[in-house]
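Page header: ASSEMBLY MODEL / two components / 195 residues total.
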Amino acid sequence: MSVDIIFKIAAIGILISVVNHVLNKAGREEISMMVTLAGIVVVLLMVIDMISNLFSNIKSIFQLY
Amino acid sequence: MSIEVLQLVGIGLIAAVIAVVLRQQKSELGIYISIATGFVIFMMIMGRLVSVVGILNNLARQANMDSMHLSVVLKVIGIAYITEYGSQICKDAGESAIASKIELGGKLIILSLTVPILAALLEIILQILP
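Prediction written out in full:
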């Protein structure tokens, strides 16, 4: 769970940028934009889970009800 | 136990390198790296934080302190941490206007939490004065 998530996000980012380059060179700009959007949404779903976890932890530690 | 500090610095440095590389290609994903790193580092130090807060609670109970005061202090620390986290990430993403709004909101919430204590203090002073 812990450090893997950083490497996972980095891998997704590098993959997206490579796919983007290839699609741009092939002249498919509209599909490359969709790929970028899909990658951002996937990473956002991963990160939102962590943010809600972080907020609930802080809420319980600092008694913010 | 204290070897954790090396882990902490290592994670920070690796995440910084990854963020710099990703920001050149796709600046959107650099933000996610900083959010995730903040979460991972907080998770690492959370155990120590819980024990420190528990010790503070124990001390307050032994000193017969009003538990409301300590909980206000803890709430202020928590709000300050969360607003700082959010505003730093916004600032990293280049949105310093949103960051300063987050800070303003956090300061206002902290002020509204601490005003009752200030009012109680003023009341005590007024009682002491003839």
